[in-house]
From TrEMBL:
Organism: Gossypium barbadense (Sea Island cotton)
Protein name: Polygalacturonase-like
Protein family: Belongs to the glycosyl hydrolase 28 family.
InterPro entries: Glyco_hydro_28, PbH1, Pectin_lyas_fold, Pectin_lyase_fold/virulence
Cell compartments where the protein resides: Secreted, Cell wall
One Gene Ontology molecular-function label: polygalacturonase activity
């Protein structure tokens, strides 16, 4: 039987406590105002923030970059690693604001990016990416830039994000890419339900990541889980509006790293397109999904509460229509309850040449318009235990 634990969660907490104890004796503070930042929301403070980062990064002490109350206009910035400081904390009491003209930021990949850093914490504050004007451009089918991710961490270790508010990202709100030991808690993410590609938190090629006590309202996946994710713990997350919590889209590449040891527990989905979803393109791939446990989730008017889709093909464009698919095995759904806004509350659409195996349903109670819902199964093997409503098709 699959056994999922979260030893990495305790390791991360111990690590951060040790860092905090070590930092209390010698923490050098850098106020962005001292470097020329203006809290009026109109004066470009990009240079001041980069100077504060350079000073903190080059210090041998644990450091804090302090952002007082106010609004700070910032362009695209990359905070590079290789720092002498063992711990750098961004303490944000104000709001960081993107330029009003979406084109100034929209041509960049990221708005605020951290690359190759170790021991960075972001505490508090708000990030206002001014996304609605770009969304409107995209809705009109004009020649629009792709847009920037609001906050990204790449190839970094020992990262902590606490009590941050991300508003109206142009694209993804938070991206964790190629990272290790990341702890995200108390984050709020807000964007319109029809905002395009505004995933809340995206994780890929990363291990030992915790996402806890977060509220995510957005126009795409609340949390998206990409290839190469290992040891991911998601707990006490409220999602809606949005597209739910999704593993995938996978099988974008022939050679792709797998997703393994993922736990999603104590989650709430409110009027979302999906609840707990695994999705992959119908094409050959070395990728896989295994060792996933979805437990204790409440669904309220969710279109697809439980879904595995190995024939993912948005808008039916550029789809190869090959049926091999990635390997999906050892997936547990336990304690999933609430209401579906469609009659089919459980849908497993797996590959005929690579069926889903080891799927387990236990203590499921989903209804549709106060009536029994339905299940749909294709090319899936598993078992149902205890109460399962709708009636299992396994």
């Amino acid at each position: 039987m699959m056994k999922l634990t979260r030893p990495f969660h305790g390791i991360i907490l111990i690590l951060f406590v040790m860092l905090a104890i070590n930092s209390t004796s010698a923490t050098t503070k850098y106020n962005v105002l001292s470097f020329g930042a203006k809290p009026n929301g109109k004066t470009d403070s990009t240079k001041a923030f980069l100077m504060a980062w350079e000073a903190a990064c080059s210090s041998a002490d644990s450091t804090m970059i302090y952002v007082p109350k106010g609004r700070y206009l910032l362009g695209s910035m990359a905070f590079k690693g290789g720092c002498k400081s063992p711990q750098i904390t961004f303490r944000i009491d104000g709001t960081l604001v993107a330029p009003q003209d979406y084109r100034l930021l929209g041509k960049s990949t990221d708005w605020l990016s951290f690359e190759g850093v170790n021991g960075v914490s972001i505490l508090g504050g708000a990030l206002d990416a001014k996304g609605p004007s770009l969304w409107a451009c995209k809705a009109s089918h004009s020649n629009c830039p792709s847009g920037a991710t609001t906050l990204s961490f790449t190839n970094s270790k020992n990262i902590r994000i606490r009590s941050l508010l991300s508003l109206n990202s142009q694209m993804f709100h938070v991206v964790i890419n190629g990272c290790e030991n990341v702890d995200v808690q108390g984050v709020r993410i807000i964007a319109a339900g029809n905002s395009p590609n505004t995933d809340g938190i995206h994780v890929q090629l990363s291990k030992n990541v915790n996402i806890i006590k977060c509220s995510i309202k957005t126009g795409d996946d609340c949390i998206s889980i990409g290839p190469g994710t290992k040891n991911l713990w998601i707990e006490q997350v409220t999602c809606g509006p949005g597209h739910g919590i999704s593993i995938g889209s996978l099988a974008k590449d022939l050679k792709e790293e797998g997703v393994q040891n993922v736990t999603v527990r104590n989650t709430i989905f409110l009027g979302t397109q999906n609840g707990l979803r695994i999705k992959s393109w119908a094409r050959p791939s070395t990728g896989f999904v295994q060792g996933v446990r979805f437990t204790d989730s409440l669904m309220r008017n969710v279109q697809n509460p439980i879904v595995i889709d190995q024939n993912y093909c948005p808008h039916n464009l550029n789809c190869p229509n090959q049926v091999f698919g990635i390997k999906i095995k050892d997936i547990i759904y336990e304690g999933i309850r609430g209401t579906s806004s469609t009659q089919v509350a459980i849908k497993f659409d797996c590959s005929p040449k690579n069926p889903c195996t080891g799927i387990r349903l236990q203590n499921i109670n989903l209804s549709y318009l106060n009536k029994p819902a339905q299940s749909s199964c294709s090319n899936v093997r598993g078992k149902a235990l205890n109460l399962v409503q709708p009636e299992s098709c396994l």
